Amino acid sequence: MKIRQALISLSDKRGALEFAQGLAGQGVQLLSTGGTAGLLRQAGLVVTEIGDYTGFPEMLDGRVKTLHPKVHGGILARRDVPEHLATIERHGIPAIDLVCVNLYPFAAAIARPGVTLAEAVENIDIGGPAMVRSAAKNYAGVAVVTDPDDYPALLEEMRANGGALGLATRFALARKAFGHTARYDGMIANWLSGLAEGAEASPDEAAPASSIFPDRLQLAFDRVETLRYGENPHQRAAFYRDAAHGEGAAAGGIAAYRRLQGKELSYNNIMDSDAAWECVKTFDAPACVIVKHANPCGAAVDARLSGAYEKAFQTDPVSAFGGIVAFNGEVDADVLRAMEARKHFVEVMIAPSFTAAARELLREKQNRRVLEVPLQGKCQALEWKRVGGGLLAQTPDDFRAQAGDLAVVTKKRPTARQLDDLLFAERVGRFVKSNAIVFCGGGITLGIGAGQMSRVDSTRIAVMKAKNAGLSLIGSCVASDAFFPFRDGLDVLAQAGAAAIIQPGGSVRDEEVIAAADEHGIAMVFTGARHFRH
Predict the structure, then answer these.
(1) Active-site annotation, residues
(2) Residues 439, 465: Cα–Cα separation, whole Å
């Protein structure tokens, strides 16, 4: 289908001029609206403004521009139905063969602090989605373009085919267009559904939110890549990035990764990388976290990242083999030399950046996957987990206990150094599968017990891990992600040499557990915050 007339109306004008110039160079007549028309005219292009084309000026502060039979008739008329063609000819409506439209920046509007309902409403596009949907519906005779990244390929196809775009291209564009408008409407629906009851009464005041859980949740994700397989080779898988919450929704998360070298990531690589990254970025001091099968098997803080790595590795050198290693600062050559000295094979390395010297050393390990992820970025608003026939949504577990949050419940009080270690262990424990027990000392994990049905079994596993690594637990500090239902777990900790414990409290047997701690001369503090992780 040859393109003879195109309508261009854009909020995001990235690449618009070059695209319009390419169309004009192939003899395409250009129609446009206000700002876009001005941009094209300034560049010397011949363009007809929509108001001149329809005979009606833009009106109602721009709310009505393209909602006109001469626009939609030219888009929606079926080229294979003689009656349609006769109708538009009788009414003097030329066919519009290409519609290039993107929509008002609603996402940017609602991201502004203090945005009012009135401001948000004025950024809800009406004419744009109508044109996009009309053109997409009539893909058999019209090309609809919503993505600036498609401009070069479309121009190239037109040059190669005498100004025509093929049916397969038009159908692909239509599919993308319907996804574009669905995502846009979903974003609007989610935001409006989250406003407090009565928000409409004061549209010029900052829009008050009542809930982050809309009645009807609209999700939108872009496929980043199709993976070789899922958790197991017989499962198929793909990786998607959140697109429902506007630009920057994935910033700071593993979905924002840039792969510097190495093979493509697998399903399990991405899952484990997410666990390592979310844990390591919670620390302010230079930190290293090593993850295996979604659980930290070593974590440490130090004045230097290389020191943090060396300490994290010693927690469980066996499990660290083939794991994911994440850092919260720029990785230098010292870190890589420390890893090489231990002949540490890793699947993935993650950091906000790597020095030039580090990059040079990494070139000798081309099979090692190396990811850069921005350290800054907003926390995602919700976490989702699929269950059979449904979806669970929750806010992230972003509670970080501080010294002022702790209630000392035993006769013995923790020392200042023990408090630091307790808070460190508690932070690591948030990322260990429940039931979780974390021993530490001096900002280093010493033993980690994860994922057991019994808390006392997790405790015994953590003790066993420390012994296997040749680490002493005498005088150590321990974090438990939930309360101790009985004193038996605490007795195991005491036998292993624990000197201080941090836990949420809240058990009906808290007094029994506190009494046991006093018997053993252990300091214990309550946070009041549980950290289950399933």
Answers:
(1) 137, 293
(2) 10
